[in-house]
Amino acid sequence: MGGFDIYVQSDNTFLNPVAAALGPLIVTPSLTSICVNGLATTGSCTATGSPNGPGVVEVTTAESSGGNECGGISPCSGMAFTITYHGVASTASTPLSYPAGFGACSTSSVASPPSTCVLVDDAFGTTLSENIQAATAQVVGITLVSVVKGTDNNLYYNTFTGAWGGTWQALNGQTPSSPSLCASGGTTTELVIRGTDNGIYHKTFSGNSFAATWDKNPTGLTNNQPVCAVIGTTLYVVVIGNTGELWSTTFDLSARTWAASWTDLLGTTASPPALAATPSLSRLDLVVRGTNNQIYHKAFTSGAWAPAWDTSNRSPVPDKTIGTPAIVSDGTQLHVVVIGTEGNLWYATLSFTGVWSTYQSLIGSTSAIPVLVIDSAGTLHLVVTGTSGAVYQKAHPSGGSWDATWTNAGGIVSGTPAVTTIGATVHIVVKGSDARLWYNTFSGGTFSGYVSMNAAAALSPSISTP
Questions:
Q1: 3-state secondary structure of 385
Q2: What are phi and psi for residue 259, nearest 5 degrees?
Q3: How many whole angstroms separate alpha carbon 34 and alpha carbon 259?
Q4: Domain 3-139, what fold?
């Protein structure tokens, strides 16, 4: 064995791949590409004639020494690669298989079925014969976590396993701002809040519950909701200091310790900042509303924040916003939605080389901060509270354009919806006009309808995948 190109397929309405990593089988790998749900996390995806897309993982690599593994003596066995999945919906059985019948898989190590997407070869490029075995999986466990500030000012959380739990669990803490959740692994998520003393506090959700105690940052203070993102085992936190200045720090999720100091980001903002991570590039993007209402951006790359801010500002009419921007990374560029000074919604992109597009009108307005997420197929979903109080959604497929019209979920809600995606499904938690909490999903172009979560909240809720 000198290398392989293997595809694994799942039904991502039940089991959605979120990451893949090489195992130790190929000792010194080179020319490695890993593609998850049609998006490259390492190298590039095989595009023409391949099964790459939702629910499919492609992993390919070659031995860089030019020799065969195991000394060239068969049989050679070991872990080629691993895949991390999120359980999307409970099911007693869902298949894991090797796709077949695609042109890119015409050279295959498997005789039947034809063009099975499993190719293993030796160091000379000779195709080796292999047997395959499919599998089934049972999907159980927690797929969503929601944290809210209750009407009694205390923090509570609930988990979703096919349905939301009947009892909300106390987190033994309070906050004057909405909580922030950041997914950090297959079974973990991070909670960051502003305490009633304006300090910054953190807890990890792992398995089926949050940690018993809070990790308080020893020196930080904030006057607003913190924002967070995770890359590897590092939690990045950005806050607005008591003077309005922006600051950043980190929390080591392995050592369970805060960084010794804060980084002054040399800027101020009138609204909570927006932070997005691109883990495959170890990159963060921060977009804020400046005190002059212009839109500013700063990137974290190569382990450090950029020394200066860039802006989408143009002449003679400057680009401005009246609220927190909504941002998300697709792995190659940043997508940005802002509320213009007239209350209407506008969309732009920022390439990772620093080039802003012009802003495009989304023909809509909102009374609260918009939320922008991306699903497993690379489709953008913009979710807003309309001026009528109802929730609206507009989608932008990868390589396509924004929907011409909005999809109305109905209801009368207050504040910003909490939104996340699992596979191609958008999950939404909202606070109703009566403070009651409601859950809804968007899939296949339609909303499922609101389901009561048997609780009430004082501020906008939060939601995350663990």
A1: strand
A2: -60, 155
A3: 32
A4: Immunoglobulin-like (2.60.40)
Alpha-carbon distance of 353 to 106, in angstroms, equals: 37
Q: How far apart are CA 52 and CA 32, in angstroms?
A: 16
pTM of the complete model = 0.74
Report pLDDT for 448. 96
Check the CA dihedral 322-180-255-281 and report its sign. Answer: negative
Distance separating alpha carbons of residues 109 and 120, to the nearest angstrom: 6
Condensed to tens digits (0 to 9), the pLDDT of residues 16-38 reads: 898 999 999 999 999 999 999 99
Domains of the chain by residue range = 3-139, 144-464
Q: Answer whether residue 340 shows pLDDT above 90.
A: yes
Q: Are 172 and 156 in contact (CB under 8 A)?
A: no
Alpha-carbon separation of residue 323 from 49, 128, 265, 266, 314 (angstroms)? 44, 58, 19, 20, 19
Tell me the C-alpha distance between 451 and 438, whole Å: 5
Three-state SS at 110? coil
Query: 144-464: which CATH number, 2.120.10.70, 1.10.260.40, 3.40.50.1240, 3.40.50.11540?
Result: 2.120.10.70
